[in-house]
Design brief:
Blueprint: H1 6-9, H2 14-17, E1 24-25, E2 32-33, E3 52-53, E4 69-77, E5 83-89, E6 95-99, H3 106-118, H4 127-133
Antiparallel strand pairs: 1-2, 3-4, 4-5, 5-6
Protein name: RNHCP domain-containing protein
Domain RNHCP: 22-110
InterPro entries: RNHCP
Length: 142
């Protein structure tokens, strides 16, 4: 059964308490995604490209009418040290957090984590000048 028809078959909040055993085809990279290997019973994104689909308003409710592609935009670390992905819907802009799965692409995860350092919001070659303008002495020596 495809992901779009799930909300028709099950009652409200069914997926919050029941493992999802259905496979789906990723809307971004086209790969078949199977629930095995995720490390949990709740596969919610492609382990290859880390993209998802906007299906829930609240986790597991399958009530979102948007259906847009949820693209991975950031990672963060939870209190227990576990990594989680931040997804943003390309259509409506909703943000959501999803646990990183055991079989997720480690290179893609690291690329997302490193992006703020690789693409800072200021020109790196002007860091000393900008620091001096903010009241520092502009020195990078510690």
């Amino acid at each position: 059964m495809n992901r779009e028809n799930k909300r028709k078959k099950y009652e409200k909040h069914y997926y919050k308490n029941h493992a999802c055993t259905d496979s789906f085809t990723c809307k971004v990279c086209g790969r078949l995604v199977v629930p095995q290997g995720a490390g949990s019973g709740h596969r919610n994104h492609c382990p290859n490209c880390l993209s998802s689909q906007h299906l829930d308003n609240e986790p597991g409710d399958r009530e979102a009418d948007c259906g847009g592609v949820m693209e991975p935009v950031a990672v963060w670390v939870r209190k227990n040290g576990e990594w989680a992905l931040i997804h943003r819907c390309r259509i409506c802009g909703k943000l959501s957090s999803n646990r990183v799965a055991a079989d997720d692409n480690p290179m893609k995860l690291m690329a997302i984590a490193m992006k703020p350092l690789c693409e800072p919001p200021f020109p790196v070659e002007r860091i000393e000048e900008l620091t001096a303008l903010m009241g520092g002495d502009g020195s990078l020596k510690y």
